[in-house]
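F.,

This is the one I mentioned.
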């Protein structure tokens, strides 16, 4: 091609078709299925930035089921729509974190599970790439929160069961116990009333 790309494979009516390989001037390449001159079907692409994709394509875009690797440790395995992650998938991050669940337009959206390398897990609703809505957060310490989240933090009504057996039920604001809540200590002591910045406020 005039742009320096080189194609090797089948032609039909003067266009790449059925099966072939193209190597681009920038060092990237694609090998797999073609249809009427377009990358459509199953194949493998290696990109100049070190990333790669293996799976289904439609008109040159990731579409269907496939696995993408960014070359720096991030791996996505799942469904695609017109080049973006959409549907069900598993995203493994370079730091060892793993998200399994729903995606919309390349973002975590719907329901899913995030597991962090330190053992922290979140299971629940996602919106805009962050935990939003109802969910369950299990801390490495053993503390478990079940309730409402806003933009990745506890916010709204919820319940915490602490590793030592204590329980708090009430409202949270910006990840802190705030407003009205009921606390039952591991020793059986009880407090019901106002909370400010995570602390009991009142008699």
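My design for it:
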């Amino acid at each position: 091609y005039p742009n320096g790309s080189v194609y090797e494979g089948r032609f039909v009516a003067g266009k790449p078709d059925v099966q072939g390989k193209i190597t681009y001037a920038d060092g990237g390449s694609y090998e797999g299925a073609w249809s009427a001159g377009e990358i459509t079907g199953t194949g493998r692409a290696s990109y100049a930035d070190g990333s790669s994709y293996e799976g289904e394509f439609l008109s040159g875009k990731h579409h269907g089921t496939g696995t993408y690797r960014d070359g720096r440790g991030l791996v996505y395995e799942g469904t695609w729509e017109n080049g973006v992650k959409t549907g069900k998938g598993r995203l493994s991050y370079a730091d060892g974190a793993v998200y399994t669940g729903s995606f919309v337009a390349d973002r975590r959206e719907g329901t899913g599970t995030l597991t962090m390398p330190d053992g922290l897990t979140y299971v629940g609703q996602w919106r805009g790439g962050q935990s939003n809505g109802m969910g369950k957060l299990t801390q490495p310490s053993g503390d478990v929160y079940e309730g409402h989240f806003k933009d990745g933090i506890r916010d709204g009504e919820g319940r915490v069961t602490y590793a030592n057996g204590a329980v708090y039920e009430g409202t949270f604001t910006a990840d802190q116990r705030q407003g009205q809540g009921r606390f039952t200590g591991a020793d059986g002591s009880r407090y019901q009333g106002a909370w400010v910045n995570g602390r009991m406020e009142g008699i």
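The longest strand covers residues 15-23.

Talk soon.
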